[in-house]
Amino acid sequence: MSADQYELTNSNGMRVQVLGYGGIIQSVEVPDRDGVLANVALGFADVQGYVDHPGPYFGAIIGRFGNRIAKGQFTLDGVTYSVPLNNGPNSLHGGLSGFDRQIWKCREVEGGFALSHVSPDGDQGYPGELSVTVTYTLTGDNALRIDYEAVTDAPTVVNLTNHSYFNLAGAGSGDVYGHLMQIHADGFLPVDAGLIPTGEIASVDGTAMDFREPIAIGARIRSDEEQLLLGGGYDHNWVLRGAGLREVARVVEPVHGRTLTVLTTEPGVQFYSGNFLTGTFAGAGGAAYRQGDGFALETQHFPDSPNHPAFPSTTLLPGSTYTSTTIYHFATTNE
Ligand code: GLA
After folding, report:
1. 200 noted as active-site residue
2. For ligand 1, is residue 16 a contact (CB within 6 Å)?
3. What does the pLDDT look like over 207-252, one tens digit per residue?
4. Which of 12, 34, 170, 275 has the most neighbouring CB atoms within 10 Å?
């Protein structure tokens, strides 16, 4: 197993470690309001940890298709394709051997590095040879930028994301229920018991899904609303306002004062509150990860898009380039 590790640093002391294995963001050290550095990304101390515990997808590049495809089936140009069922009756995060388990090639670029991977035609059942490049760069003001690009030689579907879980008080320091979450979305996608979108875009108004104003993640997580019970907490896609690269979410950890602002070109974000973390393994700092110990904001097209023609399209044709950009911008506040 390749143990290649790449690093981004800046003059504020911020340091990001990325593995060639899965393109995994292994750690993100950022200062708090007193300048004290802590790693805020959940993960393991070495590659073996990720190999042994692939289930949470800590920090990984997700592809070819982020989130779920219902019954592992979709139709493109009249042909039905089957992709692996690795999440009950559905396919999750690209299948049994997704991009999170590939060894990516690295080359330096200005301000960072680019990881690349060629997924052969038929890989995990997906059509077309897909060539993917994911570029990580870090700015002087603590913005970690991820640019995704992909091209194919036959029609296919693509939905790439990064599956980092953050805890702005420090990974392994406890739960994130006191973090204030804000998501710039008026609607979300209700799901069924298998966490597949029903197709409806529901208003967040009057529900526990309303994050239009900052509110603690834990404030309503034990509500008996059906959607929260189905997800075991938050595990839904929000339909983001606007288009182009814009701010879509902001998270504030009030005790240490670290903030995370997420910008993306994507139409959706999966806010996942770490519901499947079970306390059965420990992370890099030695503490076991339990339910709610991290939050993920997975910028993406909507789950199961290939089976929902009304959702923004995830089809990629030969001659076109898939592009996507997400920025995780860290800062501090005295709020
Ligand atoms: C996504 C999914 C969750 C879960 C995690 C990984 O967030 O929506 O249901 O699979 O990935 O554990």
Report:
1. no
2. no
3. 999 999 999 999 999 999 999 999 999 999 999 999 999 999 999 9
4. 170
